[in-house]
Model the fold of this input.
Amino acid sequence: MELAIALIFAGCALGAGIAMIAGIGPGIGEGYAVGKACEIIGRQPECKGSVTTTMLMGCAVAETTGLYALVIAILLIFVAPNLLGNKLISLISENKDMVKELAEAAAKKG
Amino acid sequence: MKTEPTKTDARETDAPISRRDRFLTRLWLVLMLLPLVGGMLLNLVLTPPSEGITVTGAQIYFTLSLPFENLPAPIRDLPITESQVNSALVLLFLFFFCLFLTQGLRTRGKSARQVLAEFIVEKVEGFVSGTMGAGYDGFPPFVCAILMLSAFSSLLSLLGLYPPTSDINVVGGWAILVFFMITRYKLKAGFGSYVKGFLEPIPVLAPFNVLSEFSTPISMAFRHFGNVMSGGVIATLVYAGLAGLSTIVFGWLPGFLGEIPFFQIGLPAVLSVYFDLFSGCLQAFIFAMLTMLYISLAAPEKESA
Done:
């Protein structure tokens, strides 16, 4: 049963890490947008204000997918282990006899 | 939230500021700062002491038990969380802030407060007309309210309080409000064309159109919540990391000197400038901007005058 809990925690941590791979996309996208904005400002310094505003808007929208991944990662780190761990622990304490029998059977086999 | 300075309020005299005005200005100033101080005291009193650094959601300050038996569970024992209390405090702060700025308006011999109030109103009006175009004269107060509420909610973390915007329920509420406004503006063109809007470009895509309709408030809420909360989490992690680092580096110092986390002095402030000041204000700006964009996109085409 400790193995099950450990597996849950490990799965949550790995899942959070894998989810954050999604951070690559917004990073590339926003970098491209900012680079283009810098080019434009270099070419036409007089339209700096409106270019900056539009770029920030675009960056915010491009960030959305990354933030979805972030929310999932944070749920996996801070919410899921507690939720699943507590459920598993209460399940174990409810069915103590069954767990004991299973453990004994496993010990006999091994 | 912002009361616009109207001509009728302003006194066209060069008379010195009356005692009543001066008294009221000070009263509003005190009442403006009172919620913030109260919030900090409440935080001090009601937060249980914790060992080490933890990342938690909004704390439940207390639970309201309503005296009705047959209500569903979450309403009967209504939890009043930190984010609810803090957002109410921000609302109070903004209310008295507006009263403070607009007390004793006059057309000549303007005070610094009045100049600031006029600056804010003019800026927001220019912002709204620049983004949405003409014909949305009723919008600047709404947009300014969202902008101020969001910005000051995020800035609340500078006082060590829990920023309400890092609670998904708070920003989710705002996003649902915006969603209702978008739908209302879409319905202005008539119910038939609202339904027809879902069947474009081809009727097969109708389920996806419905989905994208609902993804608007979700993405708005997640964007704001994710940015503010991730800032808080990263700041907490860096803070904990610096404590460990200074224990390693300065641990050999004798006595209590070895226990002082020297690295925690000053360094986290650099992060705070980005995550609390810049990111908080930027997210407020983006939320207001997206609200305006979505609403002006949803509104039926104005007949060209």
Notes: Residues 64-94 of chain A form the longest helix (31 residues). The interface with chain B takes residues 56-57, 60, 63-64, 67-68, 70-71, 74, 78 of chain A (CB under 8 Å). Chain A has a mean pLDDT of 85. Chain A has five helices and no strands.
